[in-house]
Specification:
Layout (H helix, E strand, L loop, with lengths): L4 E4 L14 H12 L6 E3 L4 E8 L2 E8 L6 H11 L7 E7 L7 E5 L7 H10 L5 E6 L12 H5 L5 H22 L3 H10 L1
Helix pairs in contact: 1-5, 2-3, 5-6
Subunit structure: Monomer.
EC number: 3.1.1.29
Protein name: Peptidyl-tRNA hydrolase
Length: 194
Amino acid sequence: MPIRLIVGLGNPGPEYEQTRHNAGFWLVDNLANSLPGTRLQRDSRYNAMLAKTSINGQDVWLLEPLTFMNRSGQSVGALARFFKIAADEVLVVHDELDLMPGIARLKKGGSAGGHNGLKDITAALGTQDYWRLRLGIGHPRSLNLQQQVADFVLHRPRREDQELIEQAIDKSLLVMPQIVDGKFEAATMKLHTA
């Protein structure tokens, strides 16, 4: 099954732009910028930044919900229903506390692991069986920080962590054509061994 919808998760507004929770937005922004003629534009029907593009000859929607993180499912569900996009044709890109900065992992399904954006998307799609691209941001404990998780995800990463997150985004962009083509095994091997 090819991917027809790539969703980047984050919170709208300049005060959140550089925060760890917006790693999904960062990847989708970079992806849009790398594709000729692709520009994310505000679309009030889906309350999102949206672009239709082509990757490897495959039509793909890029979506960044403009709701706050815990309401991401509103945009995703509305677009998926309108264009009849099945859950297994959806890739959600999000920050992941359980992975260290610099690590990106691809997986299908599974629990939301406390991620409110994923919880809301699961509710909107009626299933957990969609693809996720998890961008490691680390956990405050694993990074020896005293911050609470909620505070941690809503703050800017340290410079060294930011560089690692950007490297993980770059690696992820390299396998995006394979992901879109539905070659998940090959994409996973490349991403997980790079």
